[in-house]
Amino acid sequence: MTIEIKTSTMKPVRNTYAHIQRRFGDKPATRYQEATYDVHSTHNFHYKPLWDQERELNDPARTAVVMADWYDLKDPRQFYYGPYVQNRAKMQETAENNFSFFEKRGLAAGLDEVLRAKIIETVIPMRHAEVAANLNNMYGTAHGTGTAVTQALIFEAMDRFGNAQYFSKIGLALDDNTGSSLVEAKQHWMSNPIWQGLRAYCEKTLTIKDWFEAFIAQDIVLDTLINDLYYRQFDVWLTANGGRDLLLLMEFMQQRAKESQRWSDSVLKSVVAESEHNANQIRAWISTWRIRAQEALAPLANALLCEQALAEAFSVLEQRLGKVGLGH
Amino acid sequence: MSRVQIAFQDNDESRYIVAAIEQDNPTAVVHYEPAMIRVENEGSLTINRESVCEQIGMDWNVQSLHLNLITLTGHIDEEDDYFKIMWNN
Amino acid sequence: MSPTKLNLKDKYKLLTRDLDWEFSYEDRQEAFPYEEFEGIKITDWDKWEDPFRLTMDAYWKYQAEKEKKLYAIYDAFSQNNGHTNVTDARYVNAIKLFLTGVSPGEHAAHLGFAFTGRQMGGIGARVAAQMQSIDELRHIQTQIHAMSHYNKFFDGFDEFNHMHDRVWYLSVPKSFFEDARTAGPFEFMVAIGFSFEYVLTNLLFVPFMSGAAYNGDMATVTFGFSAQSDEARHMTLGLEIIKFLLEQHEDNVPIVQKWLDKWLWRGYRLLTLVAMMMDYMLPQKFMSWQEAWELYFEDAGGALFKDLERYGIKMPDYTETIKQEKEHLSHQAWWTFYQYTHAAAFHTWTPSSDEMDWLSEKYPNTFDKYYRPRWELAAEMEAKGERFYTTGLPQLCQTCQIPMMFTEVDDPSQVAYRESVYNDERFHFCSDPCKSIFDNEPEKYVHAWLPVHQILQGNCGGGGLDKVIEYYHLDNGAANLEFEGSPDAERWKQWKGVA
User: Fold this and answer.
1) What does R_g of chain A's alpha carbons equal in angstroms?
2) Is A128 a member of any domain?
3) How far apart are CA B28 and CA C472, in angstroms?
4) Would you say the C-alpha torsion A214, A215, A220, A226 has a positive or negative sign?
5) Which CATH number does C26-349+388-496 carry?
6) In a 3-state reduction of DSSP, which class is residue C42?
7) β-strands B36-42, B29-33: how paired?
8) CB-CB neighbours of C426 under 10 Å
9) Which site in A159, C162, C220, C371 is 20 to 30 Å from A105, CA atoms measured?
10) Residue A59, CA distances (Å) to A155, A271, C66, C169, C184 in order
11) What is the mean pLDDT of residues C200-229?
């Protein structure tokens, strides 16, 4: 049987879902819009959570900051699941090639013994700190409001778990896949004084109850400093100190950090711009966590780079905060 | 003993995998259902990397099984060289 | 001496399990505060067996490949007006039920696994839960995109998320997932990870997807089977969590048994919607509900419980009840929706005589005896222009929230009613298992948002039925009522060139 479809009768009855129409009008919507907006359940919850009887199941009150519309926190990258994994798949392919190039050319053998020891002492233990980042972002997915931000938070969480594995793989690349460097690095993480500040900071963030405070402590304060120390200053240092080949192995994390900062900037900006109440709350959190970060990172930054390194990183944090209206 | 089963999307890659299963599990029964190939066997069922590689004529990673898998029953034992499902009774 | 290289298993251990550490500066309980209140005893997280060894880079790689394939098909589907290739416009109602009833549950599961993926103390289990969480996000999003094209040409899809929070029958899946999410992390894992994903998921997905395959719905087949490829990982996680809990401490056994009894029943009741979809909503049928139940539950589930026996776990007592009900379930459900379709976001219809013959053949003990006469009467009335609707409001079960429509196991002419009194208030149930679930946790279930109670209390737009329909955002006269004569049916005829 042949079917003749007249083009005139094949006109759509509507262009998109009703809630998307209410936000953007009845016109063809993007996949990001349909996958994101108003996906969180908002009404008529059935039971009290046994683990939080004071609040509803999906409750915007799980943070002190207040938004009239949580979907203002649009991801500038417009990542929903598909583009997210496809983007990361491309990046991981490059990383995979970099790692196998490093291995195939025996580049580890070319590293100076002192440098190798330095990497194991000051870089590889980051794999544990990345687990805290994973958990803090996962916390936001579980307790945050609105798919716009909660999906971006789980992407960040999975990224950070990926980072933890990439840091570990750097170790494996240096120890000929025996895992000995990871054992050493874990000892540094557990007892070397240069790491104890950061470890205490990480443990502290995991006890935060307010999910947006966790975002501030992790993705804004700590990450800005770490990103500057590890992915900018240390990058320069490696180039100047015979560690250029190692940059191949850091590339994924470096690129990812830069990209993710665009997202976290935009989240911060929207929340601060929403109200004076939010801005004040965030200022209060930042002032607490920056003091903790200063203490936590001073010995590490010093061992990794030099005395001035942390101050430089803090000035980058200042700039970042200044841009969203949180400057002094 | 109980039956285990595994189902794949009906596509070209799955056909090689199913051929490898049939070769290594002579008692397995294959059902072709809409868009899906379902394989049953008593007790356990094993997919060997070597056998799939032979069928495809190329390297094949056991983890890429997940690309075409629809469902399975039984406990899983996954290694570099094989993927096995079984019941312990 | 050259050092020993790691095999994949040990490497995965280093790349995952070894990342965790003992806290020195904070109380670990402050960071994982919900691990103990359910009474579950974990003595050693190191005993956790990783269900699969997928590192993040491999995850991105394989998932990206799946997504690429999937969206290529979506694009082709919409560019070629794929919606006109389904067997019949009646079919589309099955996927309306899916988008409004099932898809929001995927999002709930996403949030639930994010919670357990944050809260469980063992990193191996946590990472597996996190991967499931992001997979579930994938599922809701790919489903929204698959249905996006249908939404452009059929009614009943466009308010799916507004409806999910409000419409009476959608409170059945909504309350199911919220029951699980409001529980502690281990009950959630047993509820969704094991009972739902491992034991029952095949009865949800395989029927919908095979139904789609039989009815020319390429978009649904594709997202369904693509989602199922994640499901195999999820099922493995479900089985691992059960084994882990049972092996950790003998005190866990009765708790897990209680959860299994509760969640297999909750899940089974939810599947009532699938039973009706399979037997009544597919123009081209492929398998009866009864057959699917036998293949995917009695067969596979039987083997599973035999396996769990050694831990002291037994098959729930009510499986005999289910066995009896399997010959009645779909008929009673479709009959209920047939009567209340004016308040539903999909169409209903009387089965054709061919379809009734199929039902007689599949249900030789029950269809001709109890259900055929009803449908023949309904068809007669319809022919006279007196399509039958019920205007009263049904009583709902306090636990599963399904209208009281299930009959006594030993007497199919008698609707079953059970009740309990708690704090001087009387609560009603559809069955013994639903009553005992309530009796175990009355303080939880008194908070159920029961749609009919809410309507009567004026919380759903107030006033009469028209106000309720407005509150639902139900496009009256388009998305609801009988299929024959609906705008969907009329458009279909136009596309197909049938006068």
Assistant:
1) 23
2) yes
3) 51
4) positive
5) 1.10.620.20
6) coil
7) antiparallel
8) 9
9) A159
10) 21, 17, 34, 24, 17
11) 87
Tell me the mean pLDDT in the region C248-268. Answer: 97
Q: Which residues on chain C are in Cβ contact (under 8 Å) with A96?
A: 57
SS3 C406: coil
> What was the pLDDT predicted at A4?
55
Q: Give the residue among A315, A43, B39, A98 at the shortest CA–CA distance from C166.
A: A43
DSSP alpha helix (H) spans, C195-294: 201-214, 218-248, 252-270, 272-276, 289-293
Domain assignment of residue A121, yes or no: yes
Per the domain annotation, does A227 fall within a domain? Answer: yes
The 10 Å CB-count burial string (b at 16+, else e) for C186-216 is bbbbbbbbbbbbbbbbbbbbbbbbbbbbbbb
Could you give the number of structural domains in chain A?
A: 1
Q: What is the mean pLDDT of chain A?
A: 95
Residue C4 pLDDT greater than 70, yes or no:
no
In whole angstroms, how far apart are CA A327 and each of A95, A105, A158, C95?
Answer: 36, 47, 31, 52
Buried/exposed code over A274-296 (b: 16+ C-beta within 10 A; e: otherwise): beeebbebbeebbeebbebbbeb
Task: Give the nearest chain C residue to A17 (CA atoms).
Answer: C158
Task: Please check the confidence at residue C273 and state whether its pLDDT lies above 90.
Answer: yes
* Domains in chain B: boundaries: 3-86
The answer to whether the Cβ–Cβ distance between B9 and C9 falls below 8 Å is no
**Per mean pLDDT, which range of A33-42, A197-206, B30-39 is the poorest?**
B30-39
- Angle among Cα C172, C176, C181 to the nearest 5 degrees reads 145
Longest CA pairwise span in chain B (Å):
36
Q: What is the pLDDT of residue A328?
A: 65
Q: A-contacting residues of C 348-367, CB under 8 Å? A: none
Distance, CA of A267 to CA of A258 (rounded, Å):
15
Residue with tokens 């199929």: C358
Whether residue C18 and residue A46 make contact (CB cut-off 8 A), yes or no, is no
Show the CA angle centred on residue C493, arms to residues C492 and C498, nearest 5°: 150
* Nearest chain B residue (CA) to C238: B75
Give the span between the Cα atoms of A39 and A81, in whole angstroms: 14
Residue B86 has pLDDT above 70, yes or no: yes
User: Is residue A114's pLDDT more than 70?
Assistant: yes
Sequence-separated (6 or more) residues with CB below 8 Å from residue C303? B2, B3, B4, B73, B74, B87, B89
Q: Residue A7: exposed, middle, or buried by beta-carbon count in 10 A (0-12, 13-18, 19+)?
A: exposed
Mean pLDDT, rounded, for A57-85 = 98
pLDDT in tens, A294-307: 999 999 999 999 99
Please, where are the H alpha helices in C16-122?
28-31, 56-79, 92-97, 103-119
Q: Is CATH 3.60.15.10 what the domain over B3-86 is classified as, yes or no?
A: no
Predicted TM-score (pTM) of the model is 0.95
CA A145 to centroid of chain Cα atoms: 18
Please answer yes or no on whether C63 and A85 come within 8 Å at the CB atom. Answer: yes
Least confident piece of the model among A151-155, C56-60, C145-149, C302-306 = C302-306
**Average pLDDT over chain B, rounded to an integer:** 91
pLDDT tens column, C284-300: 998 999 999 998 888 87
Please give the average per-residue pLDDT across C476-489, as a whole number: 96
Asked if C437 and C445 touch (Cβ cutoff 8 Å), the reply is yes
Residues 6+ apart with CB under 8 A from C101: C164, C169, C170, C172, C173, C273
Per-residue pLDDT tens for B32-61? 988 889 999 999 999 999 999 999 999 999
Q: Among B72, B79, B87, whose Cβ lies nearest the Cβ of C232?
A: B72
